[in-house]
Amino acid sequence: MRNVLITGSSRGIGAACAKVFAENGDRVFINYNNSEDAAVSLVNSLRKSGAECEMFRCDVSSPSEVRLMFNEIEDKFGGADILINNAGIAQFRLFTEITDDEWDRMIASDLSSVFYCCRAALPYMIRQHFGRIINISSMWGQVGGSCEVHYSAAKAGVIGLTKALAKEEGLSGITVNCISPGVIQTDMNSNLLPEDIEALKEETPTGTIGTPQDIARTALFLADKNSSFITGQVIGVNGGIVI
Ligand code: NAP
Question: How far is the CA of 88 from the centre of ligand 1 (A)?
């Protein structure tokens, strides 16, 4: 049974990944920071359907908390075979109004967290000579989003980290890839008005916005042992809004 750690899996894309991997027969490690009730109810429903599933509270922007989470995973289960770095925050701000604290929080939550989790996960993967790291970036990391400069910078950093780490770990049986979502229906976009959503749909070749399951199914594909020749890639799952 594969062990799959999904950061930020109390809600949204992370929760969809947890369900899809659990349905696939994997042991799923749910990570949450604030949304304990949502995490508990997800764990209960996954267990009810027969899945093996554990829950870890950890703020992945904190290197010491990440260390503690991985220590617990290693003590109880050996390690994580698959790491999905999904946790993240977003913020809409004019560039000139971003404070030092907001900048630091964004970089810590959306980029440093990926560094901390990859660093903690790799020794086990290297020993197993197998690993799958899937980082959730964003189309804004590829093309830049107005009023989301700090978010775009962090997500572009995730793409750079992915490509460089893929080169370093290629001979260790570990692939490192990015999924770059377009607009996905989650709490992160709850600030968008219905007319904003309609405008985004019109801009998108498929005429739709995405679902968390669209991302989860792509992650499942990248995590497969037969996806071993795919590494260092940025897979856009965006309905064609960025090509
Ligand atoms: P969401 O619905 O807002 O959920 C975010 C998740 O991340 C929550 O489970 C939250 O946990 C967790 N999280 C945030 N900061 C954390 C931290 N420091 N430590 C641990 N967990 C943390 O967001 P989403 O739309 O599912 O987004 C998931 C990922 O996809 C993010 O990286 C986001 O940037 C990326 N993405 C989303 C979209 C989109 O349109 N939705 C597009 C492109 C990229 P708690 O609630 O427990 O704190």
Answer: 4
CA 233 from centre of chain = 15
Q: How confident is the model at residue 56 (pLDDT cuts 50, 70, 90)?
A: very high
What tens digit of pLDDT does each residue of 203-231 get? 999 999 999 999 999 999 999 999 999 99
Does ligand 1 lie within 6 Å of residue 59's CB atom?
yes
Verify whether ligand 1 is closer than 6 Å to residue 90 (CB atom).
Answer: yes
Answer whether 89 contacts ligand 1 (Cβ < 6 A).
yes
pTM of the complete model beyond 0.90: yes
Index of the ligand 1 atom closest to the CA of residue 212: 26
Q: What is the DSSP string of 212-235?
A: HHHHHHHHHHHHSGGGTT--S-EE
Alpha carbon 27 to chain centroid distance?
17
> What distance in angstroms lies between residue 7's CA and the mean position of ligand 1's atoms?
9
Residues 64-73: tens digit of each pLDDT: 999 999 999 9
Give the closest residue to 134 by CA, choosing from 25, 4, 241, 30: 4
